[in-house]
Amino acid sequence: MGKKKSLSGSEKNTFVKSVLDVFRNNPYSSFNYKQVAARLGIQDRASKDLISLIIGQLFKTEELIMSKRGKYQVNLKSPAYAKEVKTSMAGTVDMKQTGKAYVIPEDKSEDVFIAATNTNHALHGDKVSVFLFPRRKGHKLEGEIAEIIKRNKKQFVGTIETSKNFAFLRPDNATMPVDIFIPNTKLNGAKNGQKVVVVITEWPAQSANPFGEVKEVLGKPGDNRVEMQSILAEIDFPLSFTPKAEKEASSFPDILPADEIRKRRDFRQVLTITIDPEDAKDFDDAISLRPLEKGHWEVGVHIADVSYYVRPGTAIDEEAVERGTSVYMVGRTIPMLPEHLSNGLCSLKQGEDRLCFSAVFEMDETAKIYSEWFGKTVINSNRRFAYEEVQKIIESGQGEYAQEITVFNNIALKLREERFKKGSFNFETQEVKFKLDEKGRPIDIFLREMKDANKLIEDFMLLANRKVAEFIGKKHENQTVKTFVYRVHDTPNAEKLETFTQFVERLGYKMKISSKKSLADSFNKLFNDIKGTGTETMIETIAVRTMSKAYYSTNNIGHYGLAFQFYTHFTSPIRRYPDLMVHRLLAAYMNNGPSVSKDVYEPMCEHASEMERRAVDAERMSVKYKQAEFMLDKIGQEFDARISGVSKWGIFAEITGTKCEGMIRLRDLEDDYYYLDEENYQIIGQRHGYRFKLGDKLKIRVKRIDLARKQMDYEWVP
After folding, report:
1. pLDDT tens track for 417-433
2. What whole-number distance in Å separates Cα of residue 414 and Cα of residue 459?
3. What pTM was computed for the model?
């Protein structure tokens, strides 16, 4: 039991107000004392006991009412609250296939259910205002969309279905609940069955369907290029570079100017290597090693100097700003920069002189740093390694540059160990990879894990990113910190964390959340304990959702997940625009340039964060598409699988070895009436009591593949 909390009168009044505000700010939601504590970010037992006591007193004074045992909500009829009843709110639409939706409030309070008849032409991702209905007993908070504040998108991808006088677009995206009506005069050459991009032109109030016009014909469904283009169009990503940008890029000569080389620190005689995936097309980072006195090492992290080629105000820069990032899809990369730069002059190819921006450290093998230097360099990579080659050298101690790679690995291990000691989270997920034929069709799927070779490079990139951020962001005596671009990561939402903790505890795992360090240790132990179990994918997915998302900002709040007070992205300017901004700012400030305006750079950070989210969505969609394509010729075949999720519609099962996830629909389970036991993550048969629980092994048969929607349906094989 915790010690009794002793508060002064004013402190108690403030505490009571904080508790009451939780209920008043969420008038249609019910909370127990633990949930109130979570929303207030309170974790100690004594304060939780005090909250329980306060709730009891507020219940006695009728400021709160009991909605069900142990749960309370604000009394909307109390005189103190009568003027504060919330009748509307703003949020983002989360549209479902059935046409119903949920609106996620801007303040992250309780989602609002919107019936299909009350969506009023709102679509997935739209910013809307909602009129709230009085809560019905036993129901979720409900409402009606009153106004569409901002459309998320007007451009949709799908398949054209034509008739004599008109056509419809059948959208690929499952969150688009209606087809788009297209007059024959607006087909612009599109033919029946083709994949196209359609723009919504109007949506009359009395019409069930929006009206649209074909903007671009992509081609025949099923063609690899067409399908990847479709995904890019779906996220509104530019499909090609402008001729002006291409011309600018190709104008740079292949030979580096001698006068530029003379301005830089020369690393061409220092051992330098790149380590990348086997199928990598661009190489934006290299590492170098040189022995110093006293057993110390000079470790260089060399990053392609994209800022030398891409100058503000040029057509290349305008394209890069708009894209924000490269997109890595299955079998295809859509670069942020034209190919002459991304795969040519800015790619640190073996045996070729290249311009770099470098972070150079004097270190010993315990990873202690004695000095650091940042500046413009010229390098020549001695050897291009693939991760698999370096892994063999690490494990065997044999091979080309084995001694140097061993030194790199020993320092990286120490950097990693120190990071975890300070509370860094060890998120490790398996990457789904494909072997494709000459037409881009998947002929095999395998899982790639992060091994020491991958982590070696990651640790040196983290070091460079952290030290660059510290160099600019740390406040020195009598100096004002200049505006900079940071990669930031906020603390997790307390309520989400409490929910996750309860979830894993029901599965038999213990979590300590009393401090940041104990939380990180608990997460890292959990990830280790669930490796190879049926619950691994589900727990990792929910854990990632529990955490806040990292983003770019000029306001440094630190990086919670990495346990870094200062962190930026410096190491990938070929494929991330924020890294290019960091290079420019770092160079300007090292030349005593004035601080830039936050008002200019913060919107650029927000745009880059949004484009990054879209790129991640595109990558996921391409993986789902290729998994569905791989399973096309396997209808009727049986596979071993594990239950990866449960819902009121069915059981999600993931095939062992390929992570191809499909649904076993409850309506297809004809031996019993099954219902969802949400609290225990299982589906239970009402008559026979058969249970399908998260993580259970089972055998499935492939029933149906919807390639356009990237969906797979399975049957349970008893």
Report:
1. 999 999 898 877 778 99
2. 9
3. 0.82
